[in-house]
Amino acid sequence: MRLLLVTTAVLLTAGCGGGSKEPATTAPSGISVTSTAFRDGASIPAKYTCDGAGTSPPLAWTGVPAEAKSLAIVVDDPDAPKGTFTHWVLLNIDPKVTSLTVGTPPSGALQAKNSHGTPAYFAPCPPKGTHHYRFTVYALSKTTDLPNGADLDKALAAIDSAAVARGRLTAVYARQ
After folding, report:
1. What does the alpha-carbon distance between residue 73 and residue 86 come to, in Å, rounded to a whole number?
2. What is the DSSP annotation of 110-156?
3. pLDDT of amino acid 172
4. What domains, with CATH codes, occur in the chain?
5. What is the pLDDT, as a whole number, of residue 10?
6. Which of 25, 32, 80, 102 would be a feasible disulfide site paired with 18, CB 3.0-4.6 Å?
């Protein structure tokens, strides 16, 4: 009985405030992802975090394979205290789209719930220390049949099952 209580407590605690995983795809990483706001490995400017306006940064990508039927974007923080925290999930982006402007999902894209439970960009806001933020673009073999505001785990599973290519830009942020 004690083991059951301990196991239940651990599982409940692990799910609070994070704990999602990135898609486990083995798709090749042939997509190049960049931003005019920061370089790979550099710091995210505060205006794209909770210390500023909290808007999503501009992103651009190249190398989407011709067979892609849609794109997905996942922004996550693997350094979150309770496991990977997913800040943003965009689905069903037209594969002809090659960039995101500041604070704006592309026309026709759907937003799944993030780890905070809202279908929106949740600005980086690390509680302490320096965290890594991964901006990953996935080329998918199909569009998802998920609705706007879809469950995070379902969205990540849909990306995982349809990914044919991916690319990543990683940046860091530490609050002052």
Report:
1. 11
2. EEE--TTSSSS------SSS-EEEEEEEEEESS---PPTT--HHHHH
3. 98
4. 18-173 (3.90.280.10)
5. 30
6. 80
